[in-house]
Protein: Probable Xaa-Pro aminopeptidase P
Organism: Microdochium trichocladiopsis
Amino acid sequence: MHTTDRPLRAPGADIEAKPLLGAFLDRPTAPAPRAALANRSWLLRALTVTGLLVVAAAITFITTSDTTASLGTSIEECAWAALEEHVSLLDVPPIPRSEFLARQQRLAAALKAEGVDAFIAEPSASTAYYANVSAAFDLSERPFLVILDSRAEFSYLVPSFEAGRIAALDMVYDTKAVIQWDETQSPYAVLKDKTKLGRVMVDEHARFMIAAGLGGAGIEVVPMSATVQKLRAVKQESEIAILRGINRFTRQLVRALRPCIRVGMTQEEVTQAAKALFTRAGVGEGFWAIILFGDQAAFPHGGKHGKTLQHGEFVLIDIGSSLHSYGSDVTRTVLPPSATVSKELLDMWHTVHAAQSAGFELMHPNQTCSDIDAASRKPVEAAGLGPYYTHRLGHGLGLEMHEHPYLNGANKEKLSIGEVATNEPGIYVTTEQASEIGWKTGFGIRLEDPILVTKDGGEPLTGRRALSPYDP
Ligand SMILES: *[C@@H]1O[C@H](CO)[C@@H](O)[C@H](O)[C@H]1NC(C)=O
Ligand SMILES: *[C@@H]1O[C@H](CO)[C@@H](O)[C@H](O)[C@H]1NC(C)=O
């Protein structure tokens, strides 16, 4: 799952000194030098006492002055020691120019087959895919349109005064034509006049004003077809390599983080450490995280700030980042090494795991998305918890964090080899609802792996699914 980033809380806002001090005190202290122990002089004893006071004062100073920084740093350092060896997973080349040109050819063939003259898009995941025009380009009220026609020719429509700025983008094309409009003209009329386009397919993310403008200029507009949608949903080898790299790394990050989490820590401290780890590995840009303890995890997209981890609670970690603009999206519900939960709660974890397995077993070519979603609900329904599995099984993952194909109850689309979709069942019971199932406290459990559809079935792009809360 993924949602827009919540702003991180300011450091130092809500850390209790107690658990930190506990952490210091739990550490084995260095053995005192024998000579000092043997010496009984009052002077030395006084000096020792003074020394202890200085140490105590120093600890107090550290714990009260900069608790978040020191504790956040200690989680980060603890996890980095285990994560560092996995940074090489990120050594994957970006999409080569030849692949962009091949995409333009595949699109042209599809347009031709559908009797459409051209595909038109605003800066979006589609332009990033076909022409390396980033989805991050700011849209304005003045249209900047990327046009790929059924002969695989590339052109763009641009306001004259912006032509220089746009020409400087790292667009990929074989040959290009630039169509400029100035402020005395209708951009759509200029486009019609210069290109003679009769029938165009408009990208699903283009704004309605674009479709309306084209229509108003006498160009027939058709919506994006399922065939064209599939072109980007089906991943090529270079994309799969990137998705594998970033998703495997993301799982390793969760694995490295887990043993460093302690009772008493706040959700925000763990979030900060996760972000610092991605940044240290060089992929902090696209970072986002949902880290929830205990009953806070009953809200799939996050609960309140400042919650500290208690004994008997799960830690839900849903995080991702991006590599060469391709996303990672991984969720694990874990327990730190010495922590435990009730048997009932542990059984619940295994019910979610069974739901994930049931979906996974069907993530084969030609299986229908709604059937896969339905299969994943069976184990949860058998446990009497059907109503608490509140969202779809998953979503496609690529240049967008959520894209086609969607694994939900209404989608009759069939999976194809090369498609990637998350498999992320969950059970969510809020503390308010807990009495409905005879419990006192709420909880939330989710497990998520992006799965590549291959001819032999599903491949978890994380490298491996979770085995237990202690082995994510
Ligand atoms: C695509 O754009 C990025 C960012 O501007 C650039 O680094 C990369 O070299 C471009 N790719 C190609 C194949 O030109
Ligand atoms: C999927 O279905 C299509 C059309 O029915 C068929 O041609 C293809 O062989 C099937 N693929 C697999 C892997 O079963």
